[in-house]
User: Fold this.
Amino acid sequence: MVEVVVADHICMLGEGPVWDDEHQSICWIDILKGQIHEFRVRDSSLKTININQLIGSIAIREDDHFLAGLKSGLGTINRDTGEINIFSSPESHLAENRFNDGKCDPAGRFWVGSMSHLEKPDEGSVYVLEADQSVTQKITNTTISNGMAWSPDEQTFYFIDTPTSQVMAYDYDKKSGEITNPESVITIPLEDGYPDGMTIDEEGMLWIAHWNGWQVSRWNPKTGEKLLKIPLPVANVTSCTFGGEELNDLYITTARKDIPEAELLKQPLAGALFVWRNCGYKGIPMVKYKN
Assistant:
């Protein structure tokens, strides 16, 4: 069981971990508290930026500042001052919606999913933000957009809409950003909870966080086989990513949301950021948003 806690901080809904190789830091968010956290490994320092609105995901731009999917739209966040600049609101007509999980593809585009804050079925979509800040809708009728990953050969896009308990694979064209031929490649058993955030290793195996599942798991998307289970001491495991100098440390975000007070006494670390150091597997370097 992984019980190494990275920082002395507990999130209500920890999510969206991003490894910044340049600064040797792990960045993650608290969706409900509207915060971005950054822990710098070299000096064990923790910095928090208060956004004061719901935040669903972050990426790092080429200029070193943050790009974020927020309640109010897509925008940049100054890493030094916390200043927010919203430049696109593709769902401004949907008052109940917010942005959720997002990630940069191999070409440096930002893919981000929306969802109803009330988790109403089929109210969300997946969008792609290009370098010129134009936005294109890619997937419609989603409920809770979560895990995203691209295969090491940059030919396949993997995506999770959590309530479906499926991982979908799409043919992906790096040059155009087009996705085609959706196919279900992994089904998560209900007794394992619901699939949430996701990352991929250099062997092309998918690592999935399980909401109400007490684990992160490793899967072969070619066969649909579960290869490994990593138990966590908390129920709501939300996402994971590889970090460290050799990209062989697995960082794992978790949440306290939806856990009754009595149950939290048994899960005091719910909401913590965990790390499995020297896990024996290696990730793929993070791609920055090409602004």
